[in-house]
Structure prediction request, 290 residues.
Amino acid sequence: MYNISRKNVVFKRENQNILYFNSAFPSGDQYVDKGKAFLYEGNGKEGIVFIHGLGSRNFEYLKYYPENLAKYGYTTIMPVLPYHFERMPKDKKINFLSGTAADIEKRFYQSVVDILSCVDYLENMGIKKIHIMGFSFGGMIGTIAKALDKRLDKAVFIVSGGNFLYITWGSVATKVLRVRYEDKGSCSIEKCRKLHETFDKEAEKFNTIDDLNKLPICFRYDPSLFAKLIDPNKVLMINAIFDPFIPKNASKDLWAKMGKPKRYMLPSGHLTSHLLFKKFILKKSVEFLK
Prediction:
């Protein structure tokens, strides 16, 4: 699960800012398990792990944040998540959302463990205070990592959310999941609603990863389940009012379960939040992290 040992993870620096490492939670595919990260060194004493979003188009433009965070003094590491870009499996038809809920569960475990390995790397560089930032899907991974690793100080989650009842059945990004679930009869919106009748209660009771084994699979990687373990005073959320990827009830669910941290609502959609407000997002993030 999330607490697998990372003691055998080795980082190798290929050039000025590219790192390669072995994933501590192997998928069994050599391409997926060869980790890669970009390192942007700042001249300060604090560091940030920055996590990109889901899909093949959510990386290059997001480099804007680590590049500029480094200019503010923050040494920032931006890993490539499993099942993305160079870390796609040999069978190119498989992506992060392929297969069953059990398959997706393992990919969440690997993603979070890789993020924690990046925290280890920054710590081994001598950085004493480490923060985390996540954009969209990266905010979901970041929420789980922040909840599980007390070394992470502050967090900024941008256009992100939780509760897979809302995300699976309300996001344009998860249409492929809905079609597959319905075609195979493994799930439906009615079944999902029935299953999630207990979600709020389970989220309230959740305290440690030992509790995960008692929960339905899709609860085990839901950021809203982990939200109560995070101090809301240590979190800044930035959401978009017209977001078709992260439905309003999903962003509200994560925000509420996290104790209603400071939040800005942008008059934009999901992708246009960066296009129109990247300078605002950067400014507010840096102000919060100080």
